[in-house]
Design brief:
The complex is a heterodimer of chains A (132) and B (111).
Chain A: H1 8-20, H2 23-27, H3 35-59, E1 62-64, E2 73-74, E3 77-78, H4 79-110, H5 112-116, H6 120-131
Antiparallel strand pairs in A: 2-3
Chain B: H1 3-21, H2 30-52, E1 56-58, E2 72-73, E3 76-77, E4 80-81, H3 83-110
Antiparallel strand pairs in B: 2-3, 3-4
Helix pairs in contact in B: 1-3, 2-3
Classes of the chains: A mainly alpha (132), B mainly alpha (111).
């Protein structure tokens, strides 16, 4: 198990985390600071897919190469496959929140007066009324 | 049910969750589609690693393609069965939808 090929699936998960965790300091996304919300999201969103995965693996829809995964199995799945359903919801949320930060910053640059607030309605609403 | 059939059902359930059940309606926002576009690009790379190297192998009877692991074609894209795109779409949408929904619930509790 110490041989390099056994870490092939782990390498993919590490790549996903290495690519997205830097988004936290880069865009100051507040995801890891909300551990309860994050854990609940992973449990609620990941579980149905994990159950599907256990069933599909059981039915033989797909299988995992023992030579390229670590030896531990949970309900017939490599531990990495279980971790997949933690990592992918996490990277999805981090990416989504980062996009929102970038878009908010861009919108604020385009319409700085909106941020001030008091004439927000006057600035925005009439355009929409006219458009209708 | 084959992987193909289950994948289609999961996509529909994810959209129903987003649009009707928790009403986060992320599939109507440019922000979510932008995020999904970024994720799907990296999905093709990372999933290509998993499937191209045969870390994950598929029963030809459960997917549109056959036993041949093609780079593109034969029901595959970047080595992965096209069904994986549906799987990924459903998982990413469900994750973001639940996240936003929980955030709204939390905000509502604070008010």
């Amino acid at each position: 198990m110490s041989s390099l090929p056994h870490w092939s699936y782990v390498a993919m998960l590490a790549f996903c985390l290495a690519g997205t965790l830097p988004l936290v300091p880069a865009f100051r996304v507040k995801v890891l600071q909300q551990p309860r919300r994050l854990v609940l999201t992973i449990l609620l969103a990941g579980s149905p897919f994990l159950l599907w995965d256990v069933r599909a693996t059981d039915l033989g829809h797909w299988s995992f190469d023992p030579a390229q995964t670590l030896p531990w199995r949970v309900a017939g799945l490599p531990l990495e496959e279980v971790a997949f359903f933690v990592v992918i919801p996490l990277v999805s949320v981090l990416t989504y929140e980062s996009v929102r930060v970038v878009r908010r910053a861009r919108d604020a640059r385009r319409a700085p007066r909106d941020v001030g607030g008091h004439d927000q309605r006057r600035d925005r609403r009439p355009d929409r009324e006219v458009a209708r | 049910m084959t992987y193909t059939a289950v994948a289609v059902v999961m996509v529909l359930l994810a959209v129903v969750l987003d649009q009707m059940l928790v009403r986060t309606r992320l599939t109507a926002t440019a922000a979510w589609w932008t995020a999904y576009g970024i994720v799907v690009f990296f999905q093709l790379l990372t999933n290509g690693w998993l499937t191209g190297r045969g870390i994950v192998r598929y029963d030809p009877g459960a997917i549109l393609g056959d036993a041949q692991v093609s780079f593109i074609g034969n029901g595959r894209l970047f080595y992965a069965p096209v069904e994986d795109l549906a799987f990924g779409f459903a998982l990413v949408l469900t994750s973001c939808s639940v996240w936003v929904w929980l955030g709204r619930r939390r905000d509502a509790d604070e008010v």
